Amino acid sequence: MKLILASASPRRSELLSIITKKFDVLASDFDENSIVHRGNNSEYVMNIALGKALRTSKFFNSEAIILACDTIVCLKNEVLGKPSNKEDAVRMLNMLSGNKHEVFSGIALYNNVTGKIITDFQSTTVYFSKMSSMQIEDYINTGEAYDKAGAYGIQGKAAIYVEGIEGCYYNVMGLPLSKLVHLFSEMGVNFN
Question: What is the mean pLDDT of residues 162-181?
Fold first, then answer.
């Protein structure tokens, strides 16, 4: 049975390859804006992940398990997605500076033959140190901020601003591995 990662994220591919090397990548073209955030962060990311999985499954006739994910950063009830431009990245990093925030990842697994669907989520609390305007500018100039929720990547140069976390580190990167292994087992997927 094929395993399809419905994501263009190189970080998700890298993380999934820790569990298995046997997967194909097909980025989902699901319109994430079609899902309305109604205040429940975990429900929101799971619904987006499921939308991505179901949309991607339309491209397969043979049996496949579709894995899709979505990750958001939340601070004081505001969802921080990927910044749209430099000003947006500056705004987000100023908000995160000196504060704690939550990172939510939704996961969806879909078997396109049996129709079995499993969704779940993981949340992690991240504590950011205070960043000066110059530090924010320097970080944004690395280019790392633009394709990441909350305008930072914990695995990159922003690591020096992360004072600590409560929860799964890999969740902050976009794919909570321990949770995913349990969901694969629940789906009947075995990589041994």
Answer: 96
> In one letter, which amino acid is 116?
K
Domain that holds residue 103: 2-187
User: What CATH number does the domain containing 174 carry?
Assistant: 3.90.950.10
Residue 71 phi/psi, 5-degree rounding, is -130, 135
pLDDT exceeds 80 at position 105: yes
d(CA 111, CA 117) in angstroms, rounded, equals 7
Catalytic status, residue 138: no
Q: Are strands 24-25 and 2-5 parallel, antiparallel or unpaired?
A: parallel
Instruction: Report the number of distinct structural domains present in the chain.
Output: 1
Residue 192 within any structural domain of the chain: no
The residue annotated as part of the active site, out of 70, 120, 138, 147, is 70
Per the listing, tokens 């794919």 go with 175
Task: Quote the CA–CA distance of 45 and 21 in Å, as a whole number.
Answer: 25
Q: In this structure, which amino acid lies at residue 108?
A: A
The confidence band for 162, taking pLDDT boundaries of 50, 70 and 90, is very high
Pairwise CA distance, residues 47 & 192, whole Å = 30
Please tell me the distance from the alpha carbon of residue 48 to that of residue 41, in angstroms, as a whole number: 11
**In-domain check, residue 101:** yes
Which pTM does this prediction carry? Answer: 0.92
Residue 28 in domain: yes
Give the number of other CB atoms < 10 A from CB of residue 1. Answer: 12
How much is the average pLDDT of 102-128? 96
